[in-house]
User: Fold these one by one.
Assistant:
Number 1:
Amino acid sequence: MRSRTQVAIIGAGPAGLLLSQLLHTQGIDCVVLERQTQAHVEGRIRAGVLEPGTVALLEQAGVAGRLRREGLPHHGFRLALDGASFRVDMQDLTGRAVTVYGQTEVTHDLIAAHQARGAALVFQAADVALHDIAGDTPFVTYSQDGTAHRVDCDYIVGCDGYHGPSRASIPPDVLRVFERVYPFGWLGLLADVPPCDEELIYSNHPRGFALASMRSPTRSRYYVQVPLSEKLEDWPDERLWDELALRLGPDAAANMVRGPSIEKSIVPLRSFVAEPMRHGRLFLAGDAAHIVPPTGAKGLNLAASDVGLLAEGLAAYYREHNASGLEQYSARALSRVWMAERFSWWFTGLTHRFPDMDDFARRMQVAELNYIRASDHARRVLAENYVGLPMAYALG
Ligand code: FAS
Ligand code: PHB
């Protein structure tokens, strides 16, 4: 079967769904092709913190109703060192705050908006392939229920994550990749118990990093740093709760409510960037182009800022035949991506225990955390990166 659209989007994660919704508000025709089932996509447990810029894009996309009702404004977070914590007041230091609202909910709201308007959102699209991306007649092929499909389009946007086909469609002599793989992962737990604190706690402890987060006043999300060799079966709930109590410190432990995990998983950590984020008629957005260690809560937010820039460029192109936004997309997006990569790499280095860390390196972490505790200036630097740098910083 053959069809035509203006923009073919590969991947129905936050990047692909938000881009499709933003293009719809601009009257631009698009189709989203997703390999997995809707249930699989909606079942993913991932990010939890939205920057104000991401909230603004979700408002612009017309999908922020539930977010406004159920999202938790967070004006600060806590940093703990060896069990003693202090607060970083983002609102006081930057005039801005973040919103705690799970990526699972964002995805659900975006899919519901697509289905309410009968949008072209195709699940279980198998064998998606990109064609003629360097030419003027790009198209995408895929199969569904044994039927072969071809979608002719003006542009293709790869929102297909780290393992998708889009980045792989860019010739190796064009693509340049940058990577750091961290010597540990995050073991995450989701449980229907109240959080141990009103705000997030990032903890640097001699036994390793821990994070106390949440999804709602009755649903908690916790993480501990673990060696990459760890197996999930070696971490029964009780062992994980004991480790969290040790690493988060006595105050958090005293308020910690234990309960059965409803999800438990280990994710590896990497910093990754692919340049450029455009080749011919193909654009990359979100995890298809970059990965950050989740420490800085940047992954989902970077995906949103990518598609916000791209939607702006596509709207100018179709409305005013002005291609400048599209021509500048890769450079503008990468400028912001690298600033978030730096912050996420720095924050991971500050809070995690590296296997090759000697006493001097540990003293450096302690000294930097004590400096941040003592200095408004140092806390302001941390706060403005965490809450999300203004777009103007990146556009230079
Ligand atoms: P996604 O990976 O979310 O979406 C890509 C989509 O493309 C998927 O639905 C996939 O099925 C689809 N796809 C792939 N190949 C395809 C093909 N061949 N054909 C069609 N479709 C295809 N970020 C944070 O800020 N905080 C966190 O705590 C955090 N935790 C994470 C935990 C895990 C396990 C992972 C993997 C990531 C985590 N992230 C976190 C980062 C995460 O939130 C991403 O930044 C975010 O999902 C990026 O969204 P997308 O770019 O849409 O990519
Ligand atoms: C989460 O709630 O999943 C979360 C929050 C903040 C982070 C990473 C993950 O930095």
Number 2:
Amino acid sequence: MTTVRAEQDTVAWTVEEGIAWVSLNRPEKRNCMSPALNRQMMRVLDELEFRDDVGVLVLGGEGSAWSAGMDLKEYFRETEARGLGAVRQAQRESYGWWRRLRWYQKPTIAMVNGWCFGGAYGPLFGCDLAFAAEEAQFGLSEINWGILPGGGASKIAVELLSFRNAMYHAMMGENIDGRKAAEWGLVNEALPLAELKKRVTEVACVLMEKNPIALKATKDAVRRVREMTFDNAEDYLVRAQEAANSFDNDGRKEGIRQFIDEKRYKPGLGAYDKSKA
Ligand code: ACO
């Protein structure tokens, strides 16, 4: 029996103790990304971005997959049948939420529980950090069905992998497991599936102790400077810090005060107590 899932049910989410747990929710289709899912994900990201009760957003997948990439039927075949306008719209909707993730206000973590193919590299790279199950499988499978890794996937491969590994990964259409993905730099860490959520929760809790303005400035800075000359980066970072100060001068002053005057903590070993700011 074919499950017809309503658009609003293609993404599941809940907020618990500061963490927004968002999941691609088409497990019966291995969470492949249909136009409906792409639209719904943008709505969910909109809903959560500036909520005071959200400190970190975690992107996971329901069932055995994180995401089996683009929906070959709904995103490609059916959309192409409706002409160029429909194709461009579908591209805007998918690239749109991946871009949104790259510059999201809150820190984001990809929690890759299972299959991760092709187009799924978009949200994988969109998330600031990524943790995978050792059992997860990653692949640029585009070549296996006759296209190039588009939607940014080729770019992401060379951003995250060495040239040789990127080329091998893109040309061979072979999968790598979570452990190899960590070794290659596609994710931060791999650990047994049973321990994945606990580790992600731990990381999210550490992030939530940090100054949120500084975190946003930091994640943007790390992405921006990748494409700058050294001098441009130096200048950008001065301006970015000054801009951050105008939003949150007190936090930074408090961070200095608790270290220098109160000797309450050591920045080299942990974060200052935000609740005192
Ligand atoms: N597009 C459309 N439907 C998909 C996709 C997809 N990317 N992935 C899975 N499905 C559907 C299957 O057609 C099947 O539908 P049905 O129940 O109506 O027959 C259902 O999801 C379950 O899939 P199975 O293949 O039966 O699941 P299984 O667990 O055996 O295999 C696997 C999982 C390996 C992920 C397999 O589904 C697969 O190879 N999917 C395609 C992966 C891929 O190459 N994606 C495209 C990447 S390139 C890009 O994104 C541009």
